[in-house]
């Protein structure tokens, strides 16, 4: 039994998959010195900020996105993408050199740490300072410097000075509120800096120590603890320089290690106040400890050192280790623990990488140093990504080991482009990038040629506010975002830098932003159109608000060149504006009239009620109406649920103002038609008869009218100008899509109007949410609320709908943005299912941003499989378009459905025939005289004999037999050898019958018997003859022996005598 278990264990070890099955991938780096530290800098999202700066509590279903930062010993800082593509290089030595006249000694970087939730980078160099950069970079002259890297810049923010020795190791931890920054120096001192609220008060009390351009903070002044929001302490723990330091929040302690026997590793508890006592727990080990890692799931410490042994410790038992693992031949320099897989990864000085099982304490994989071709120097830095099981090694080069992820399919299924639904996605022709924004306030920048994310930033750092509208400026170098709270911001989307914040005129949601003629036009739920003048930073911002002509929220806005602007609202009103004068000269509403209508001015209802009340009392305050404009001519007043609309035919609702504002005035051609229904006129007359007191007294809720119930169906979701068409009565240059699923074509000429419409959805209750065209307006692309994409031929208005070129389902939820990329003939779609996808114009799926990458132009680099959600719910037409007909799985499904339908019809026909037969049997007298048993017996008799006879051939007739295999062959067989033949098709066959031998005649039997007897006798005679000759020879030989024997006796006797 022991041998059996031993063999089974050996077989299991041989068949166990490798943890790192792929060979090491080498990334060349142009460094003259080795890389000191390699860090992963995650893109910041509100979830990441809540979970902590280092991203240790990221949801398991979604891998954290970001970029890598590496710094060499001579101060070369490199930015890398997730695929280790070099994006930027910064020389920190040149950055630190102030005037050229001052000669500063070249820096020597010792360590680097990312403060991700603060967008800072701390770098320690050969000095007694620590520099913090707004771009996380190293410091020179024995210091720690902090750099600002919030927008891919690299500006030094402040420095820590006055350390006892050179800072060699650092660590930073934050849960979003509290932060702990730790430093270990070359003298064995450990300094810990704690901030109670790092986002509000910062990491250090730097406000009291500003001097010069950047802030230099002396550490002795911080150790005095003059502020209640900060706590700092310094302890002497080691008699040698620290090799590693880390704060363990589960133990509330700072762990440090060094190559000393007495203080190999020390756990220092973090006090809660200045008066609390600091406790130290010492771990002693011969030759010390060089590296360690902590597993909060198992509450264990794993260490490695010069003795080449991997040890597992209980944090509360410091006298001996609980387990040991031997196998390395040189000192262990780096070690990491993956608790989810129960694995330990250790790296020794000779670049030997070993993977250990945490439970069995056995080596699972040994990657020899000859397979780690990274120069002759030992590994200087290691980063392990537990989400993707990727180990990154660094010397002068960078090596990447990709491991196996157990549930990689599930991770890819759950991974989306954004964490929240999308609001829009734009394509920038200058940089060949796609910019997308989501309801979480996060903006992501993607490379359209590869699908790689190059930048991500948060538009509202304080709290997550939904991004509702985006656009580029004229040169397409800046991004303009509008949010749900009405805020407008200008960004450098290449590095995430906030350039300007526009003044908030109202706190309503922004639904449309357009940049025309150095002006930013904005519309939204405020029901108004406003513009801001794009000026430089030192100039005063100029803005203006146009008159209100919409009684409901504005849903869409678009421009025709730089002369006309169109806005569409929830009530179905479509207003066309003159951009230069700001006047609304045309209105359309498909439910009111097919002809152009006069725009109706809408006044705030509360202001109108205040005016009527003051007028009834005989008092009038002119200050309330100073911002209003004069209306020329007569006007009528009609009331709506949101405000009061003013049109021709009634006195003005307010006294005329002294002068007319040209941006607030309105003039319309006399040919326009103003239509009012009888119900509206009756409501106006009733409203005019009522006094203000009666209207205020009637506080009972009124029943919802049919018009209000009809408004959701009349809402215009999208308005689109066709820029290449000229304005004429019979030319449609404006397309609108309503919630009823129709696309309407309008001529904005005063003799024009609605020229036609067609249905562009597959089912009832579906709305067209977005539209786009090519540059020549020869092709219309639409996206609806169910996720379908349609490509329609260019529509010259006629009585027949335009031909549908292609249609497929691209998302499971509604599409909010669709844009056609003319240069590559691609379609970019953004949906409420949190995905941004790329398609060809023919409907081929290229990929989803944030998942597998691709290469536009190389069809072999496209993903082989379609999205899982589309494969699960896609129709035959969708699968046909996505597969381009080359893989007709849709055809097989269609044939199966047709077969099932035919079988169902056949069963239905048979059931109806049987019912008819049951009705016919009792009625026929020839059948009624027989019982059921007799009929069954006759049927069986005919089956046995009757059907085998023929009226022509008689009994000689035999029915044809169709040879069919009893069951299909099981072709789902795994083959171990490629040379083995595989059966793909079998011929029909039947099993062979046994051979029946005919009887042998008696005469033949006698003859065979005689022949056998003769042969036996002949053989017997031959054997006898041979035996006789042998006897004669034996007898002769015996006689000869008898004649010799007497002679011997005589001789013997004579001799005896």
Automatic annotation (TrEMBL):
WD repeats lie at residues 289-314, 325-366, 415-456, 467-501, 808-841. InterPro entries: WD-EF-hand_domain, WD40/YVTN_repeat-like_dom_sf, WD40_PAC1, WD40_repeat_CS, WD40_repeat_dom_sf, WD40_rpt. Pfam families: WD40. Keywords: Repeat, WD repeat. The keyword GTP-binding does not apply. Residues 649-658 have a biased composition (Pro residues). Residues 618-710, 1009-1057 are annotated as: Disordered. This is WD repeat-containing protein on Y chromosome. It comes from Salvelinus namaycush (Lake trout).
